[in-house]
Amino acid sequence: MSEVQLFLLAYSKNDKTEAREIAASTAKRLETKESGILNVVQELGPYLTEENVEIRSNAIAYLSTVLAALPSRFLSRQQTEVLATWYLSCIKDGPKLEYAAEGLQELLRTGRADDALVQSITSRLLDSIEDLQRSPQSDRYAVYVLVDYLLAVHRTSLVDIQEQVIPGVIDLVSGEKDPRNLMIIFSFMKVIMVEWQITQFAEPLYESVFCYFPITFRPPPNDPYKITAQDLKERLRACVAATGDFAPFAIPALIDKLDSTSPNVKKDVMQTISACALSYGSRVLSRYSIPLWDSLKYEIFNVQEENLADDALNALRSIATGLSFESNFGETKSYLGQYTAPITKECNQGIQDPQQKQAKAASRILATIAAAGENAYLMVIKDVMPPLYELYRTADSIAKQRGLLEVLVELLEANTRVWGTWAPQQPRSAVYNPLQPFKEKMLEVFSPALMGTSKGEVSFRIVALKGLLQMCRIFGFLDRDEIGLVVQYLNDVALEESTGEDRLQKEAIEALVQISKYKSDPILEISIPKFMAQLPQSADHGQMLTYVPSLEILAELSVEKTIFILIQRRLLSKLGDILNNGSSSEYALSILSTLRHIFSRPDLSQDLSLDLYFRMVIEEQTRDIVTANKPGCPVNARQSEAVIDAHGRLCNLIVRALPENKQAEVLNQVWSLFTTPDSFTPVPFSNQRSENERKTLVLSSHLLSGINTKKVKLDHITWGIESYFQDIVRLALDETLPGVRMALLRTLAVLTNKFFPTGAALPASIIDGPDSGLLPGNKTPNASRVAFWILKGLVFRMDTSITRILELLVSQLADAEYGQIIARGFDMLLSQDHALSEANHAIIRKLHKQKVFNVCTPRIATGFQAAPVSARANYLVALAGLLKDVPSEIIMPELETLLPLLLRSLDLDDPSVSAATLDTITVVAVQNAKGLEGHIASLVGRLLSCGEVKPSNPSTVRKSALRCLGLFPTRIRHEVLLPYKTQVMHRLLAMLDDPRRDVRKTAVDCRKEWAGMDEPDEDDE
Amino acid sequence: MADNANPTILNAADLPTRRRLSSHSATGKPRSFLFDDIVPADYNDPFATAATDSGLSRSFSSSSSDLNSDSDELAEPIDEQEVYDLISTISDPEHPLSLGSLAVVNLPDIHIVPAAGSSASSRMRTVLVEITPTITHCSLATVIGLGVRVRLEQALPPRFRVDVRIKEGTHSTGDQVNKQLGDKERVAAALENGTLLGVLRKMLETCQ
């Protein structure tokens, strides 16, 4: 068989790979001159006259595939010409244009075609295709690809015959509807529009694309081509905006289409106007700038949808930008000036009564256009500022003045967008800022508005404050002294006693923080000394109002590094003073809380002063606290449990951030707490310790929690972990002070979580030792505390021992005496705890909640069935406590088993169980409401009962129940709910009269949701 | 079609809220974020609730933590501000703005009084809301009044009788509108009208 025959065989079997190989071998022979291209064509001859279309076109494909395998420029000009003629005749013959068009493209690549040949091929091509739209999509597509290729590669050859090409192409594409084809058509049409001088063809070219505007295409579901309406819109937009020659047709048409009732079309129109404005050129655009303004303003002044107004504003700004490109020297008014003059005039009118709806729109328009560039800003400012100032001067009410200041604030904000802020790496303009001459006047307006107005005028003063802040932000605008003055105002405002709402104070603090990002000097030199000076030398109990406001401000200000450093130094030294001068523990506690707030920086571990913090806070202050709690010491603030705890938490923050060597040092001092052996004996060494000394265990707990045991080597530790563990268990079992007991329990959890090596089995004494608390028989509350906290540490790291311990605990739920305490324990097992957090380097395995859930819930479910009635509540309490911390995706698969239990637990009339259960059900309702559908009757009844006023339903429970019930109509199929609508609507009436306001509110919302469900045939309601 | 294309708008932050009514320093202690994460030391100690004293045998209903502490919870009676909150977020039928920000409903124009003819100890109340149309010839005043009325009837307990009127002197045909709003049968008939119901539904959609 000849290669042609082989190829046709493979092709008809649709084996493209083999076909390609055959063609490649033909090509090889051509390359080595064993055969000539004309021979190949001759061989094809008989197939080309075949009746069968399939065979005819496959024969064309053979030649094309051979050409594709040849190197480029392999064929001579003559051969190229001959083959081109051949292909063109195939195209003329149709059908299956696809193969011929592809082949012609291969030929142009492989052959040698000079300008004349390309021109002749192109013009003959355009002549020979008639009525392309009657061919199938794939044929049309191939022809468009060929045209695209010609325009991309041979554009310069074709430019001489563009008068023939352009009408030909327009003719070719007219009537096309397929989105795939349109994508490529828009693409090559844009090439013509942009690259060639098309003035004489502007209208037909414009018509050829604009007839598709607006695009209303909606892709079919699962469209394999993934062409979206947005893709088409963008390509079409690029065509419409391609050349200013289109302006006379496009802009009137776009203005016309702005009247469309469809928001999507309006959006498209305005975005297209925006694109045109940026590309048509100032001269052309200026002819239409006023009519465009006249139509676009309607969208802003009569805003229906916010995002449409945004698009209209964008278009207005683009016009201003487009008009700024070229200036027209010699004419009386610049293009831009002709545009802005009517706008500023109309907007000046609009802001006459600044409280009215249109004033907002006017002010947005002014700010948007001003932000278009230096010239635009200048134009707006020179027209707007003088009347604005005059209006302000003569305004007869504060409300009016406020409206005017708001306009000014927007203009200031627009100024930063052109001239930039002090923030580094911002685009800034080097041109003179036209706001400069108004600076003094603006300060004279804003300053008294903020500082000299009655304190009740909060909103007015806030606007003034924002104005001053914007002025401080503009790059190079205010000088050092002026910014200093503003900072002084802000300091005073921040410290002002609030008049019931603290919006103004918050704004002032926020403004100081903003300024500190640009200019820290005035904050360091003026603000911090001012706020520190507000802190009294000493303070008694109940005087919090004298220092807390300043502390809050200092805490908020501590953002920038330099400011943080200064504030923490000043506060630490202040803390030392007041701990020694007999001030109340409240005062010390407040400062410690502030310090903790400012030390909670994510970058603390990179702080170069960590050594200093270690020495000052961890070492010295800890030692001082321990010393102050020794027997015989007089009562002092360092003995306060709250102060000790707050100090411990502060230390913990720093310990986390310390490098390994320092952490190791802390670890060895965990019990001795930086004291010498002769001055203090660590508490675990003795049971005969005073309350005050035992309080130092709180510090030990916080220090220990922060250690990163993945980094610090435990071999060098100077105390025995296992024996200390036993000591701590013993201390915890006996401890009566709640705070100290909690610290001991956390210590146990931290020890089991990260101080015993993972992977290895735990020392037997931990689980089975006489004091471990895990064994039945030891039935004091403290024993179960110990048991659950040890377990918690193990659960978080998912130790292999937990299955056995959990099974044991679940089995004890049936215990008549002890089951109740055990049941409560499940509440804390999975909950977050600051000692066992990621930040504290705890070992937390991802699947630990899943594990506990998988072990416990089936056992709780079966245990519940088997338990005596008196003990059943214990199972429900345990379940509620556990589920509240389990992510819903773990719960969902077991919903069928759990729901009956959850419903029963709502019957217990136990507030904490109800609260936890309602949370769980609410999560289910949000995420997987379908799972509830089978239980609607019992759920609705119980939720309504939980919403009733009775002692077992505190307001939190009533509120959760009603919130959950209110979710149903938004999540569950209405036909399932409708049978209960009458009942719900009726019983909710009572809840509208709940004594608590927030419950009533929830009842109103819930009732609204249920009322909104339509009955198929409404009779009552 | 718009009656008043350029109404005066109040700043949302300046509308009356409960936050502003209550003074902060009643307790003498500032509410500070600095203490947000300081919790009592026995927080997260569920055992404390089950095991205080020797209370192992106490029943569950009395065993709970501070959740229960509001059994002596203070009653917060329904007041004018609460009524205002219910209706101020209704949307105006022609602007995408709330009745509160358009000053159509105003706190001083809401009055809760014991219902006429009820005894002194009765809990029956009448709530009177006077609405102020944005312009005196506002053709939508009736619809707005109806919206307020429907909202309050849905959201207040049955012991409240709802009375919605046009504030005197703010509307050219105020008396007629009042007659319509006060006539139960005409209100009921209006609510049968599908188009009107659609408008009302859209107005009440934004209620918060």
Automatic annotation (TrEMBL), chain A:
SUPFAM superfamilies: ARM repeat. InterPro entries: ARM-like, ARM-type_fold, MMS19, MMS19_C, MMS19_N. Pfam families: MMS19_C, MMS19_N. The keyword DNA damage applies. GO terms for biological process: DNA repair; iron-sulfur cluster assembly; protein maturation. Belongs to the MET18/MMS19 family. This is MMS19 nucleotide excision repair protein. It comes from Xylona heveae (strain CBS 132557 / TC161).
From TrEMBL, chain B:
InterPro entries: FSCA_dom_sf, MIP18, MIP18-like. GO terms for cellular component: cytosolic [4Fe-4S] assembly targeting complex. Keywords: Chromosome partition. Residues 80-164 form the MIP18 family-like domain. It comes from the Eukaryota. One of its GO terms (biological process) is protein maturation. This is MIP18 family-like domain-containing protein. Coiled coil: none annotated. Belongs to the MIP18 family. It comes from Xylona heveae (strain CBS 132557 / TC161). Residues 53-68 have a biased composition (Low complexity). It holds the Pfam family FeS_assembly_P. Gene3D superfamilies: 6.10.250.1280, Fe-S cluster assembly (FSCA). Residues 53-73 are annotated as: Disordered.
